[in-house]
Amino acid sequence: MVFTNNPFAAVTDFFSPLAMQIYIVLMVLAVVIGTLLDIYHKGSAIFFAQRKEKSRAAAQKQLSGTETFSLAVETIAEAAVSGEFCKWPRRLSHLLMMYGFFVYVITTVVMVFCYAGVARVPAILPGLWTLGASMILVGGLWFFFYLRVNVAFDGDSPFHLGRADLFVVSLIASVAFALLWDYAQTTYANPTATWTLFGLYMFFTTLLFGAVRWSKFAHMFFKPAVAFQRRVEEANGSSDLPRPSNENYIIRS
Amino acid sequence: MPTYTDMTRCDGCGECVDICPSDIMHIDPVYRRSYNIEPNFCWECYSCVKACPQNAIDVRGYADFAPLGHKVRVLREPEKGVISWKIRYRDGRLKEFAFPIRTTPWGSIKPPQDYEMPDLSAIGSQMLAHEPAALHIDALPTIDKIKA
Questions:
Q1: Cα–chain-centroid distance for residue B38?
Q2: Which of A18, A69, A142, B126 shows its CA 20 to 30 Å from the CA of A7?
Q3: What's the pTM value of the predicted model, to 2 decimals?
C-alpha cells in the first residue's frame, strides 16, 4: 500500500541490497569530496584561517573554552530555526526543506540498510519518508517560484534557470520523482513507467549529490561556520562593525 | 566610495536590489548573493548600506585615490532609530559615529494615499494638506494684522 510499504523493497528485483547500500555510501563520499573540492576552489579554508588570525590579532579579550562552547551552542540554535533569515517566508521555506531533507535522508538510509528487500516495515518509516519528501517539495517549490531573490527582486522569470538553481532544482526533481515512483509502483502501474520514474529519481539524486562542487549544496556547511566566526568576533571585540548605540532615538509613536 | 557586498554576511534577501536608485545592485547568478555590478555608476547614496538587514554591505574608495587598507562599516538599528558608522583608517585609527535617522518607529510613517483627500475648498487655505495635525501641533502660529 502506498505510503506504508518500503519503497525500496521492489528495487531488489533488479539490484541487490548491497548495490543500493554501496550507492548510498558513494553519494556520501560524493558530498564529502564535492565539499572539499568546493573549499579548495573557493579558497574558503584559507579565507577562514586568515579571518581567524585577524580576529585573534584584533581581539580585545580572550574567550574561555566555556564562552566559545556557549557561542557554538547559540550558533547551532540559530541554524536550527534558520534564525539568520530576516523574512519569515524564506525562513519557513528553508525550514521545510532542511527538516524535510533530514527526515527523508535518515528514513531512506534506515530502510535501505536495516530493511533491505523487506516490503513490510514499521509504518512510521515510509510515512516519515513521504512526509519528508513532501516537506521538501512544498518548501522547494514555494522557494523556487516565489522566493528566489532573482525572481522576486531582480526581474527574472519564475522559470529562469541558472547555476545557482542546480541544488534546489535537483533536490525538488529528486523528491518529486521519488514520490511519483513510489506511487506508481504501489498502484501497480505500467512497469515501464515505474522504472522510467525510478531512472529519473536516480538521475536527479545522483545529480544532487554528485554536483556539490558546482551547486549550493555546501552552503549548509559554510553558513554555520561563518555564523560561528561572526559570533566569536562580536564576543572578543574584533568585529569590524560599529558598537550598538546606547541611545534610543525613537521618542514618538 | 562605491559599495560592495560581503558575501559571507549576505543572505540574499534582495533589499539592496530593491532600494538601489541606480539599479546596480544585482544578484550573482552563481551564489545568489547581491553584488554591485557597476561600482563606477554608484551614486554613493548608501541606501543599500542602510537598508541591508545583515550589515553585509561595506563601502570602499577607488584604489587610484583612496589608500587601500581602510574600512567603512555600518550598523543599522532601526528599532533605536540610529545608524552607526565605524571608520578604520589605513594606519589603524578608528572613528565611530552614531547618527539618529528618525524619531518614530520604522514603518510607522503614513504614506500619502492613507490620508483622506482634502476638500476642494482647502485649495484656498494657506496651510498645506493635513496641517497642522500632520505636524503634531494644535495650530500653526499666525500673525495678527492689527499688531503688525
A1: 20
A2: A142
A3: 0.82
Of A87, A244, A249, nearest to B13 by CB-CB distance is: A87
Nearest CB neighbour to A149, from listed B13, B30, B82: B13
pLDDT at residue A19 greater than cutoff 70: yes
Q: Cβ contacts (< 8 Å) between B28 and chain A: which residues?
A: 164
The rounded distance, in Å, linking the Cα atoms of A183 and A1 is 9
Do B138 and B132 contact (CB within 8 A), yes or no?
yes
Name B97's bridge partners: B85
DSSP string, B26-54: EE-TTT--EEES-GGG-----HHHHH-TT
For chain B, state the CA radius of gyration: 22
B49 vs A133, more confident: A133
Q: Which amino acid is at A103?
A: V
**pLDDT at position A252:** 80
What would the pLDDT profile of B108-123 be if each residue is shown by its tens digit? 888 888 888 888 998 9
Search chain A and give the residue with CA nearest B6.
Answer: A226
What was the ipTM of the complex prediction? 0.78
**Cis-peptide, bond into residue B67, ω within 30° of zero:** no
Which of A31, A25, A39, A26 is closest to A217 using CA atoms? Answer: A31
Residue A210 has pLDDT above 70, yes or no: yes
- Cell 565539499: give the residue: A35
